[in-house]
Design brief:
Distance between the termini: 34 Å
Structural class: mainly alpha
Shape: globular
Length: 117
């Protein structure tokens, strides 16, 4: 629990200086070199991405095509393939992106930005 809180806090700190796309790219960059990453390290990165997205700036087209519900897992798996990210734990990271894209927090960011992204 403490590790998840620390990871989210670290992500929020990083997200304050990044846009959404860069949050995801930074996460994938950290995950790529270690295909045998432990579950706890993977969970840490998941929480870190969650915090980063929460504080990040909008990225144009970041949520384009992300499903609201129902087809999140197939969409996430397809995005993993499109990103050439062949880790077994990739799908949950992209599922998090899809959930974030349909979240009230994301809609609030869009409203604050005037709906331009």
């Amino acid at each position: 629990m403490e590790s998840g809180t620390a990871a989210r806090s670290q992500g929020e700190h990083e997200g304050a200086g990044l846009d959404e796309a860069r949050c995801l790219a930074a996460t994938l960059d950290r995950l790529r070199p270690d295909p045998q990453m432990s579950f706890s390290d993977s969970h840490y990165e998941y929480q870190r991405l969650d915090g980063c997205l929460a504080r990040s700036r909008l990225s144009k087209s970041f949520c384009e095509g992300a499903p609201g519900s129902g087809k999140i897992i197939p969409w996430a798996a397809a995005r993993c393939r499109a990103l050439d990210f062949q880790r077994p734990d990739c799908t949950p990271f992209l599922q998090l992106v899809a959930k974030y894209c349909s979240s009230p927090e994301r809609r609030e960011k869009e409203q604050q930005a005037g709906g331009s992204n």
